[in-house]
Amino acid sequence: MLRNYYRDQPSDIAGEFDPNIPAVRYNFKEPYGPPPARLATIAGEVFHNLRSSLDHLAWELVEEHKPGSATKYTSFPIWDIPPAPDKQGVTHPPRISGGVSPTALAMIERVQPYRFGPVFAGDSLYVLRELNNIDKHRHVTIRGVRSEGSLLAGTPRRFVFSTRLKGVTEYGAELEFLSNDPTVDVHFSTTFQVVVQEIGPGIIMPLIDALTRTREAVEEIVNEAQRTCFPPKQAPFPD
Q1: What's the average pLDDT block by block, 10 residues per block, for the chain (239 residues)?
Q2: Structural domain tally of the chain?
Q3: Theoretical Cys-Cys bridge with 153: which of 4, 11, 164, 187, CB 3.0 to 4.6 Å?
């Protein structure tokens, strides 16, 4: 869907580059259309399924530790605020209803967003939690495109440019900027990407980054749990 969206957008963009001005000035001959609403729907389903998979993992961790102990409150905690200390001043890891093994609990605590201090807003699990919670009530806010990762080489000076579409992937539309002045020795390109913009939780990033980072984070947790918290399954027909 992202690739199709980028292909359908106009690539004949003009503008002006000035090394004394921090932002490139774009002049869209045709405005970029908004991303289709279904893109937000599908993204929300991905976030929901990733979050749900962690809750399923928590259930299996409880059942592995003490069969029959999982409850309707068993879920995988994702906290941006550390647990409050008890009356003795001791801070305990997040509690999982039904209980898990010390190994599982240590793993769960280690990946909590609050472990990263005040910069947790960029943590992948925090992003997953917030975007999944938002999607329960409305679509995640997916804005149009913004320029990401500009590359400038040569001798920069002021020039007016047009653009050429170099290629399209799910990671964006790569545009090459062509100076209208042949004496300008400069090579300039950038990538336009669809952006998630949720001001409240402080999540502003390309949609593809939100999807891939949250998926990779969940996959890493599941793989570690499989490796350290569950005994190897005995082969049905041992040698």
Answers
A1: 90 80 73 86 96 97 95 95 81 89 95 82 90 93 77 69 89 87 78 91 93 97 94 63
A2: 1
A3: 187
